[in-house]
Amino acid sequence: MADKDNLHAFFYPDSVAVIGASAHEGKVGHTVVSNMLKAGYSGRLFPVNPSADEILGLKVVKSIPELPRGLDLAIIAVPRKFVLPSLAELADIGARSCIVITAGFKEVGKEGFFLERDMAELCRKRGMAMLGPNCLGMINAAHGVNASFSAGQPMPGQIAFFSQSGALCVAILDWALGQDIGFSKFVSLGNKAVLDEADMLGYLDRDPETRVILGYIENVEHGKGFLDRAAAASPNKPVIMIKSGTTAAGAKAASSHTGAIAGSDQAYTAAFRKTGVIRVPDVESLFNLAQAFAEQPLPRGPNLAIVTNSGGPGILAADACERSRLQMAVFGLATVNKLQEFLPPYAALYNPVDIIGDAGAERYRKTLKAVAEDDQVHSMLVLLTPTGSAEIEATAQAVIDVAKKSPKPIFACFMGQERVGPGRKMLLAAGVPCYCFPEPAIESIESMYSYFLWRNRPKPVYPEIRRDRDRADEVLAEARAANRREIVEFQAQRVLEAYNLPTPRTALARTSDEAAAAAGKIGFPVVLKIASPDISHKSDVGGVKVGLKDPEEVREAFWDITTRAQRQKQDAFIAGCLVQEMAPPGCKEIIIGFKRDEQFGPLIMFGLGGIYVEVLKDIAFRLAPLSGADAFEIVREIKSYMLLKGVRGEPPVNFKAIENIILTMSALAMDFPDLYEAEFNPVLVNHERAVVADVRMTLNV
Ligand code: ADP
Ligand code: MG
Prior knowledge:
Layout: H1 4-11, E1 15-19, H2 28-38, E2 44-48, E3 54-55, E4 58-59, E5 73-76, H3 80-92, E6 97-100, H4 110-126, E7 129-131, E8 137-140, E9 145-148, E10 155-163, H5 166-179, E11 182-188, H6 197-206, E12 212-217, H7 223-233, E13 239-243, H8 257-261, H9 264-275, E14 278-279, H10 283-295, E15 303-308, H11 311-323, E16 327-328, H12 333-342, E17 353-354, H13 361-372, E18 379-384, H14 392-405, E19 410-414, H15 421-429, E20 434-435, H16 438-455, H17 469-481, E21 486-487, H18 489-498, E22 506-509, H19 512-522, E23 526-531, E24 544-548, H20 551-568, E25 576-581, E26 588-597, E27 601-608, H21 613-616, E28 619-623, H22 628-637, H23 641-645, H24 655-671, E29 675-685, E30 690-692, E31 695-699
Parallel strand pairs: 1-2, 1-5, 5-6, 6-7, 10-11, 10-12, 12-13, 13-14, 15-16, 15-17, 15-18, 18-19, 19-20
Antiparallel strand pairs: 3-4, 8-9, 8-11, 21-31, 22-25, 23-24, 23-25, 26-27, 26-29, 27-28, 29-30, 29-31
Helix pairs in contact: 3-4, 6-7, 7-9, 10-16, 11-16, 12-13, 13-14, 14-15, 17-18, 19-20, 22-24
The protein binds adenosine-5'-diphosphate and magnesium ion.
């Protein structure tokens, strides 16, 4: 991570050198110089080239040592083999930051990988911020800096954008020009050898010219830095991101269901959620949201009012609203009375307010004003279909006027293209987001409302979990000493005890007689399970028998289980059987687990258990440590929540007990950094209690 002042020199350079500047049009080293000039750069600009005298009217500097000391920014566009020597020379003159545009490093193979590593090391050691290599460059339009080889000049604006893909940068620049979208900072990260998304978040968080931060990332390589910076930035300004590509990070073979299901994509989603980053699926939503967040105030509640001049689109919008976290506002009587005064008799006075196809601009203006003044309304959506009598531009103006005076967010949806075009342009220019269809408008409002809720959420509380860490560590230490990765149920029982987790009464029996005696003490019916350090998935070898009703059945089951297991796993050491209290009928099976994500740490999973878990994938994730609110929400997030709540007169399960086990799992994951995964599967739960009826844990290799 580079230091703060160097980043400032990077974004606001007073002196810039282009290493490998060229007099030949079409060369990157030429485009960069030309872009700096076109952007209106007012600082000192030095093209560097050993064999040219003048480039685009600028006097050429022959070599790096001839540049002024303490240069703010060097843009490097020389062939690969000259990059490292150039960096060393730049460090010698005390250059503060650089952009390596040149490609052919980590992305092409081993040789490039090591070269890039050397470059990064040099920059870190000498305190020089480096963007790239293999990137398009950086643009700070308001400051007249276009340190890139982009084809166009973006306008200044309030949206910052950084991207790991240079190609996407090119496309977005071109698209933004067509949409009149401007940028405060535009950064192509390239290979991220030194500067990465965490540095950008850290800087942009404090950048007064940036209101919204957008990012496109493919992978995060410093998870902790990312989480910290994202968590710090999100409360100040919205951070909206696209994450593409799923890496095969789960290279280690998973030995639990959790491991098999929890991939890196879920970890990203959980990381975004934990830090308040808004994740979007595509570039279109990215910019829809960016505009909305940059221009409109946040809705302070869920209630949306829709004003429309046609029925169908109004219903579409209302449907989309119902599917979202938003609600259709119910107007106060005063509002309805007011509307009745000037709307035609067949207008619909209730939400959505249909002011009918012959509505002109004034009718829109009056309606919007009345609705905006209603306390029950938190946000508004204005729909216009280009009917014969629609006054498109005048209506746009009316919306703009109301929006200017209202502290509530207003969004427009002018449906169509050709005729509504000019009105839409006016709205966008005035900062009223305008969409072609209702659904994306609703999505934007919903996102803003969710962000409002997130920002105003109560401070997370992390309940204290009573536990004896040292006692649990004895079990892990035994496994470590024996070089065993897997810790199976009969061994992990002590860990459950040390963490005060509720379990069915359980005893280890070495003989069938011991088993029968233990069952007598526990009380029938009981469950018998194979107890072997070498058998992790017990049912797979016929190692579990439930519902054993008397001593005879227990004895028989003991023989059956142990001989079968030994036959199937001949070199397995068999300690005997666990005799376990049988959970009462009607219990529901749930699964609580975690897997340590390489970047973001323990990813806690909750879901309905049983044999269908991997098919239905009805599961929810959070990054540890979980707060009380996280535990509360995660159990309510899965679709099967309705089943847990009870159907047809069943009482709801004991949610508090489940949440407690989830929080304990989170503590376990945080306590033992060398635990790679752990799983309670199943936890059996009814309206009274929840018991952990099976556990397996895996240590890191
Ligand atoms: P494994 O996952 O190693 O095959 P489990 O201990 O999870 O073994 O047992 C398999 C299944 O048996 C569980 O998923 C559950 O349906 C049932 N079961 C296990 N223990 C109990 C118990 N104490 N009470 C009721 N059912 C149980
Ligand atoms: Mg199990």
